[in-house]
């Protein structure tokens, strides 16, 4: 019963966290616009897979590393910021897509999954989710896996909206100049996430 009672609040928490802007959603929007929804799917699924592993690992003790070794959190912020700036540059300088041509390459499943371990918003989500909604009764491992899986199930349509939103924007952009402005804006927004990471 305790497990079932936590699903409603956990759903609301995940919806509020995954519908709001963040590095993942900005990059999914840019990818959806530049590559379309289908080619963005590995990126999208990589976010879900990476967060599932991260959330489960936090529940099983990884979060304690932050408490005992604050330097790990600092290093994570620096690595995450550097990688985010690298991705932001790639987005900002991406050439406009050409109809019928396959140019550039969206983030792969494994790249997106690995990024979650350097993504502070994913860490905040995981730490809050497991601290607030992990049931105390029953097997901890099973509960952690089920809660992490449920969280990603809720997150799926939320982040898919951002990729779909990007795809819709891509259909409205006409000409190289509008694409340069769009990609430059998406790159700047991605880079701006570093301010929240280091702030």
TrEMBL record:
Domain of life: Bacteria
Transmembrane segments: 42-66, 75-92, 144-169, 181-198
Lipid bilayer topology: Multi-pass membrane protein
One family name in Pfam for this protein: LysE
Name of the molecule in the record: Transporter, LysE family
Intracellular or extracellular location(s): Cell membrane
CC terms in the record's Gene Ontology section: plasma membrane
Swiss-Prot/TrEMBL keywords: Cell membrane, Membrane, Transmembrane, Transmembrane helix
Chief subcellular location: membrane
Keyword field contains Transcription: no
Top-level taxonomy: Bacteria, Pseudomonadati, Pseudomonadota, Gammaproteobacteria, Oceanospirillales
Molecular function per GO: amino acid transmembrane transporter activity
Tagged with keyword Membrane: yes
GO BP field: cysteine export across plasma membrane
């Amino acid at each position: 019963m305790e497990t079932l009672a936590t699903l409603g609040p956990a759903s609301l928490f995940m919806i509020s966290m995954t519908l709001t802007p963040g590095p993942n959603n900005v990059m999914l929007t840019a990818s959806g616009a530049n590559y379309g929804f289908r080619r963005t799917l590995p990126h999208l699924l990589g976010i879900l897979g990476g967060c599932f592993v991260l959330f489960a690992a936090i529940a099983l003790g990884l979060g304690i590393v932050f408490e005992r070794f604050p330097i790990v959190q600092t290093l994570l912020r620096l690595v995450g910021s550097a990688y985010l700036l690298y991705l932001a540059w790639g987005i900002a300088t991406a050439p406009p897509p050409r109809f019928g041509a396959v140019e550039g390459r969206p983030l792969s499943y494994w790249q997106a999954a690995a990024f979650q371990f350097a993504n502070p918003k994913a860490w905040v989500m995981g730490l809050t989710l497991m601290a607030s909604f992990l049931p105390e009764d029953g097997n901890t491992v099973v509960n952690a896996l089920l809660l992490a899986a449920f969280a990603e199930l809720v997150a799926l349509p939320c982040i898919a909206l951002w990729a779909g939103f990007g795809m819709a924007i891509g259909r409205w952009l006409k000409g190289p100049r509008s694409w340069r402005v769009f990609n430059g804006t998406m790159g700047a927004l991605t880079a701006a996430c570093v301010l929240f990471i280091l702030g």
